[in-house]
Amino acid sequence: LLLFGAVSAEHSGLLRSAPAWANVPRFVHCFNRTGPINSDALALWTRPSVHIVTFGCCQAQLATPVNQSEELKIVAAGHQVLEAGSSAQTVLYFPVSARPYYSVGAWAFDHPTTLLHNGTGRVVPGNLFDFGQPSVRSAVISQLSSSLHSGWISGFFLDGAQYSGLVKQAAGCTPAIRERFLQGHIEFHKELRHAVGTTGPIITLGDLYEGDSGELLGLLFLAADGLSGDVWQGIESVLQIRTKSANATIELIHDGSNRALALAVFLLLADGNMLFHSPTSQRENFDLWSCDGSLDEPPEWSAPLGEPMGPYVVDSTNTSLSRSFRVHSATSKSVLFTNVTVEIPHSTMERCTSCILWADGTSTGSC
Fold first, then answer.
1. How confident is residue 118, by pLDDT bands cut at 50, 70 and 90?
2. What pLDDT does residue 142 have?
């Protein structure tokens, strides 16, 4: 899968004065089910290029106490990262559907009136926090704020908070409950931004939210399996983000199966504030999202990146996107080029293909 996203924290630009993979701003999104992060991963995360480390929903889930106190376990992981000397912002993953291994989720299940009901006494599938209730918003933000006050967490990744998805989930509620719930979600984002402050990242899956000052609170787009309709929409979403907020940081996250396409899309779009997520763990016997393999570097990291010669270009058929990078040869006075192409068929259900012809003669993708 490919995920395009934005956070409302500011970061330095990329692909500027010293174009090289070592200078590409990176972020990590991972979890270790059994507990602490190993020293190798921590050492990699101290690199200046690592800007954000997000700990997923299952960090230390199997550690004592098993399936409990997830917020505290993520705080402990954030402690590890910052104590190791990393300057990255540490982010706590939080689902807006109650999960019993989070403390605030366990509280919600103990007090089921805090969950969204349809108006006839039934809990809406998904066990959503009913943010239409101010007391529920306050309780959740209080729990999240305690993580911030620890000093080891600087922001949040909100899963399931896409407005369009919430509209569908609340479709079976009475109109009054549905309207209150949806408005409550917008208020929750505003209140959480106030708690986090202006510098901490809030990453959300879904739509654009704007606070009182018009700041971008987040957008994340999913392109499953590289289908052309999803990739086109993802690129358009990135452009929309940049139009609305020059300071928004755009992220690209991918799994190992789509690494070639992810690299190509990243190089097409990389300008200003854009973070690249390294491939998820490909180590044998490691969970796909394991932190202990999260910064394993693909072979392309040794290829010459070069300076972008301009924005990407769309061909006359509106199906091929391309971009070139100028590389000055280290052994001669010649100028070489890295050329990136992504083919996006008109049929929305066809899969995209990509090709990166590196200046050193190697290639990535379907070349």
1. very high
2. 95
Q: Is 193 helix (H, G, I), strand (E, B) or coil?
A: helix
Determine the Cα angle at 106 with ends 104 and 110, to 5°. 115
Distances (CA, A) of 40 to 28, 52, 288: 14, 17, 17
Whether the CB-CB separation of 170 and 123 falls below 8 Å is answered with no
Per the model's pLDDT, the better-predicted residue between 208 and 274 turns out to be 274
User: Token pair for residue 69?
Assistant: 């106190």
Q: How far apart are the C-alpha atoms of 213 and 234, rounded to whole Å?
A: 26
Q: Are strands 320-328 and 313-314 parallel, antiparallel or unpaired?
A: antiparallel
Model confidence, pTM: 0.80
Give Cα 95 distance to the centre of its chain. 14
Question: Cα–Cα–Cα angle for 294, 296, 302, nearest 5°?
Answer: 140
Q: How confident is the model at residue 277 (pLDDT cuts 50, 70, 90)?
A: low
Element (H, E) at 82: helix 70-83
User: Residue 309: how many CB atoms within 10 A of its CB?
Assistant: 12
**Among the listed residues 40, 18, 29, 17, the one whose alpha carbon sits nearest the alpha carbon of residue 275:** 29
For helices 228-244 and 259-269, angle between their N-to-C axes, nearest 10 degrees: 30
Give 56-68 pLDDT, tens digit per residue.
889 999 999 999 9
User: Which residue type, as a one-letter code, is found at position 71?
Assistant: E
DSSP-derived secondary structure letter, 186:
H
Q: Mean pLDDT throughout 79-101?
A: 94
Distance CA 184, CA 21 (A): 42
**Any residues with CB less than 8 A from the CB of 245 and at least 6 apart, and which?**
6, 8, 215, 216
CB 223 within 8 A of CB 234: yes
CA gap 44, 168 in Å, rounded:
41
